[in-house]
Amino acid sequence: MGLITLLIFPIPTFLGFWFFTEIPLSTIFQFENLQAVPIVYGLELGVFYGFIALLFMQAPVFEKMPVRIERMVESMHLNTWDAIFLSLCAGIGEELLFRSGVQFYLGPIITSIVFVGIHGYLNPWNWRMSLYGLIVLPFIFLISYGFETFGLWFAISAHAAYDFVLFMSMRNPKTNK
Predict the structure, then answer these.
(1) What's this model's pTM, rounded to 2 decimal places?
(2) CA distances from 8 to 66, 78, 89, 105 (A)
(3) Cα separation of 108 and 105, whole Å?
(4) Quick one: average pLDDT of 119-127?
């Protein structure tokens, strides 16, 4: 799944830029913003918000969710390298699609709502999942507006750090590596 996210998700962004703009495809990667400061800011935001989300997920209201995120992650039997790999794949693939692609056309607010909705966190038939979506939405807003200020690598590092915190805290305790 990680490789699909990494390799397939960015394709609509590349096609959109290729056919509908005169912007060179190489600018999508924003290599000029591949600097320590935006990456560190993104890592800090992702780790901080990852722990905030974990705290919220411990609330009793989430105990009755039909599909618990923790159980899904635990069933994956991730080791540390799996968690790093999946976090990077999601961070790179999804941010290339949403921040560099969708946000270019729809702006940060609509893109953030679509991002959270596509992940299934804004579900009108499951108010608990929607509540979790409302917890995650400010983080995605911060990534979207941070992308506008600090660039793609900020967004990638924030997303990857957030996912890594969640994967590491929710993985199967029997996985020792």
Answers:
(1) 0.93
(2) 30, 22, 11, 19
(3) 9
(4) 90
